[in-house]
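Workshop exercise sheet. Pairs work together: one partner reads the sequence aloud, the other fills in the structure field after running the prediction. Swap roles for the next sheet.
Pair: D.N. / O.F.
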Amino acid sequence: MSRISSTATEFSFVGMEILSAENIQQNCLSISTEQTASARKLTAAKSSDSFLIDGIRLRIFLISFTLLFFELLCIRWIPAYVRYLSYFTNFILLASFLGMGLGLLSARRATFRFPPFPLMVLLLTAVVAVNRFELNISSTDVLYFGSGTHGVARAESFILLPLIFTFVAAAFIPLARTLGSLFTQTAPLTAYTFDILGSLAGTAAFFVIGYFALPPIYWFAVLGLLVLVLSARAAFIRSALFTIAAAGIALFLQRGTYWSPYYKITLTPATPAGYTLDVNSIGHQSMIPWRDKEPFYRRVYELFPGASFEHALILGAGSGSDTATALANGVKSITAVEIDPVIAKLGARFHPDRPYDDPRVRLVNADGRVFLRNTNEKFDLIIFALPDSLTLTSSIANLRLESFLFTQDSLAAAREALTPNGVLVLYNYYREPWLIEKLASMVGRTFARDSFVSTYGGQGRGAVIINGPRLSEIPAGAYGPYREKTFSPAETRLRVTGEGFFAVTDKPAATDDWPFIYLPKKSFPMLYLRGLAVILGISLAAIFLIAPRSTLWRFDWHMFFLGVAFALLEVKALITFALLFGSTWNVNSLVFFAILTSVLVAVLVNARFSFRRIWIFYLLLFGMLALNLVVRPEALLLQNAIARYVIASCLIFAPVFLANVIFSNSFRETEVADVAFASNLLGIMVGGMLEYFSMLVGYHMLLVAVIAFYFLAMVMRGRTRPRIN
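Structure field:
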């Protein structure tokens, strides 16, 4: 009891100033390397059987909690206002790893000066507020299919990307600098244990925020509380003022918005009735009477007139316009599937046609691909209803919410869910002729017949693609092969510009391994290459500017390659679980939580046991990675969900556990824990950049890179000199 009380007293009254942290660093730098090593060994001996919290460990836990929470806050909050970053949230993740690595490396530089963390948070929120985009531009002008963008977006990329990337990275430096100082004051494995515990707490906190769909003022309130707990008494007032100001900006920006686990949502009254719905400042949906909707909503009912559909499935039901159109055209029973719970609730509340109040409608909050896999129902009409998410599933992969819905495998699942006389319909503003051709060909291959396609021009580039057994009911000669009609580009009214049966072409199909429907072919688009080149230049300049030369000379390449490999392994785990269980926010959160738990278990195993033949774990790791390479994720799409989960978990998390046994074993022996940890974080950043190669080779082949980098790590083990003079 007395130890707990003394710890609380030390933590409350001694504290530390969490960005400059100069007093702590001066004390750390006055200790020789030999003394530090002795202190670590003594600490390790005292803590090998127990991880009781003391002042230093509690601070490591709270700082790691704050770092992870702030990282997730940046990933969720910044793209909501800086429109361009909605498609590049992994750049924010890369910036956070760079900032943490720089902070750890700078901890050994006594002359280094940097603003405090609360001030950096305030500056970052101000930069976002000044550069936010609330432009009245239709979504047809700002979609990024991957191969290129329109002029406005291209201008944003080279102005905002370096600016936001730099500010995000800089905001992490002060807090990570203090963490680096603390890592030199305790046993490395003990420090890492409390770092992982803090990360788990941060992940759990944001899971709660997502579950209750809490707006940003709550996020900033939690962050502010953490900042104040970590502040010294002398800096308490100043830290409080900075955090209150940052929270005030967030509160000002969130006025009139709703927040789902995926988006910032804004409703604007429409004429004569209803609302337009924007997500992350991009036009997304309109909740208006069904008669005023675009003509492609009604095309399938015009092609097959009368109340001829018994049971319809609408994937991407959104706020209810597709459902309202189906009801108005006599569909007797509808299952409406929407991934975003807040958008569905807003539709139920505000749509003028009130489609979700109709007893013929069953509303399901789920991932569309997962619903197709799990349902035993049969439908005579399946609609892919503009399922265009405008955002990425996760910050570590270039996967959109709808990516696995638009694959050849998913279309085959939809075909299996049709009745013998059913029909599949896709419609959207597809914007690009090659995308319409690609989708029509994929649908045509699925049904082994040409798809019926109507294209629309005058207000964007829309299309409806129809296929299925019911196409045989269309009278012979009613429509010929697809052909375009001439129309004036100045025409604003959306009207048919081409119609007919679209012949299947050799356009490469999106698959479960390469789910990039918005790429015309396997490639590494210049858009991403230019962005990565910019942030790589910023990163290298910052490392050589901030890190001491002696620290760079002792850079731990073993830890670096472990970080590169683990980042790619983490991507593969997330993608596989998204395919098997859905691209939802809660699946992503649980995957991250499971990975961190695997890391923690591996650390505790290393704390309890001493492994002298670590090469055995390398062999086991390479064996499990080879097994994952042989067993493709598509083979795990078992109908039994329990069997699917158990087998997938064993295949995916066994390499994660083994990799972290190797990492924590090496980390326990290091004499420069801060440099080793920084090297690992910078490796994770590089691994995040290499994830873009999935656009060229697919996600499964990333395992080859994982094996290669773990081999390099094994070769480099023990080759980094441990001492820094």
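Discussion prompt: The radius of gyration is 27 Å. What would you look at next?
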